[in-house]
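Quick illustration, no need to memorize.
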Amino acid sequence: MPVPHAEPGSGGRAAAPSDSTCSFLLQPLALFRSCAPSSRCHTFNVSKKLKTLITTITLAIGAIPAPAEEVAEIDKPQVIEISAAELWKKLKGDWKEEDRPAFIDLRNPKEYTREHLTGARHLDPEADDFDSKVAKLDRRRAYVVYCQDGADSAKVVATWKDLSFRKLYHLTGGWDAYEAVISGRR
């Protein structure tokens, strides 16, 4: 269908379209022509319909859920392997206070009592109340998890991935590696 055009002497207004030509899809230029709302030109009504259509499409796009894979990736905690040297550096001031993680020491009680990171919480994986203590941990916090040599803490971090912790750091090499780093720096 032809697009209405301005007639000579009409002041640049488009000729009034018939009801069948009011669709903005068929007459895109009709939206940009000026006419009085009281005239037979239906641009005013088409503009309202266009606004309604744009609003509906915008709302519909926003209501589309993300694919399950993307949601699953968002929910999975971030697990970061951290070396003893990196941990030492971060503890010496590289961590902002609000980003500073809590520390979980998984060594046996005797090893923990002898020496541990300042502020570290002791959780014994062999204890009967281990699962209940883990359940009480704040999932919104970040944690550095370590054991004596890194093997037990690697297993624990692997199981904690499914518990929705925000961020988990695993100390590679465990306390042994950390002790070697700090003994060379003291």
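Residues 1-7, 20-34, 68-74 have pLDDT under 50 and may be disordered.
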